[in-house]
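Colleagues,

For the teaching module next term, I've prepared a clean inverse folding example: a structure given as tokens, and then the sequence designed for it. I'd like students to try predicting residues themselves before seeing the answer, so please don't circulate the second half yet.
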């Protein structure tokens, strides 16, 4: 799991998920694409983007 300040979708299998105030990218095709964003700013930005 990669910890990043901004998470990005890398392929078609990636999905953006919000859990417990964190933003995750979970990929069904490639498990190496898993990412998490702990920052509050990242959680606020995804509300407007998605």
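(Answer key — instructors only)
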């Amino acid at each position: 799991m990669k910890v990043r300040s901004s998470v990005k979708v890398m392929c078609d299998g990636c999905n953006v998920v919000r859990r417990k105030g964190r933003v995750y990218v979970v990929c069904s095709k490639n498990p190496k694409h898993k990412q998490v964003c702990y920052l509050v700013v990242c959680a606020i930005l995804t509300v407007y983007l998605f």
